[in-house]
Amino acid sequence: MSLFDLTGEVAVVIGATGALGGAIAEGLAEAGARVAVLGRNQERGMARCSSIRSRGGVADFFVADAIRRESLAGARAQLEKAFGPATILVNAAGGNDPKVTVTADMPFEGIALKDWQASFDLNLVGGVLLPCQEFGPGMVARGKGSIINIASVSAHVPLSRVVTYSAAKAAVLNLTLFLSREWATKGVRVNTITPGFFPAEQNRKLLFNDDGSPTARTKAILSHTPMGRFGEPRELIGAAVFLAAKASSFVTGTDLRVDGGFLSQTL
């Protein structure tokens, strides 16, 4: 089990204030890493750190806006003083915006360019590009690092209604492949995790009616998922720990799917 031991590692988790990033942050801490929780919401960030500490882990919160490079630089300087240089980076910030969701009242051609760009800023620029530019060079200089980007099943098969989110997440996969090649001989591995469907704040209205009953979209999703259910956030922990640890020392440029078989389903 030493292959999965993260003792002595410093894990930066951007987006750990959310359900999926938060579960990954807790799992990395349970494996021994010191966790720097980065996000804009201090209340949620501190709550996440408290949850990690209640389980015996080490964590602290640092305010950062992932779409502002100077904000990330400030957070990096603070966390390095507290924990030391990052050896693990998890980019879990992102989400779909109702303003770019295709509906009967909002056709594809009606999506405003500014809203399209805002979605790409959230999911690609702040979701991967700027954090990798800020934390990646230090890992390269030290010859050690694991970067884990969070993709989506919609990056592989564009889903109805969430065209902008799908396009941005497809770009995440492509950028991950580029960085994995660029940094492969520098000791830095770059991979993605592709979650399937995990209920969270960003998609709850698409999945459940006001009375809590499943929507038609939920029924369609579950009928297309061989395991017949949604994922639970902590089911991402194993994949994240594997990609962060020595167990995956020869793994880079890989997309690890945690989707209940969704992408394997055809007819």
Strand and helix layout:
Blueprint: E1 10-14, H1 19-30, E2 34-39, H2 42-54, E3 58-63, H3 69-83, E4 88-91, H4 113-142, E5 145-150, H5 163-182, E6 188-195, H6 204-207, H7 216-223, H8 237-244, E7 255-258
Helix pairs in contact: 1-8, 3-4, 4-5
Q: Top keywords for this entry?
A:
267 residues; alpha/beta; Rossmann fold; seven-stranded parallel sheet; 15% strand; globular
Descriptive overview:
- This protein is of the alpha/beta class and 267 residues long.
- The protein has a seven-stranded parallel sheet, sandwiched between helices.
- The model has no long low-confidence stretch (mean pLDDT 95).
- It has helices at residues 19-30, 42-54, 69-83, 113-142, 163-182, 204-207, 216-223, 237-244, and strands at 10-14, 34-39, 58-63, 88-91, 145-150, 188-195, 255-258.
- Helix content is 41%, strand content 15%.
- The protein has one domain (2-204, 233-264): NAD(P)-binding Rossmann-like Domain (Rossmann fold), CATH 3.40.50.720.
- Strand 5, helix 5 (163-182) and strand 6 form a beta-alpha-beta unit.
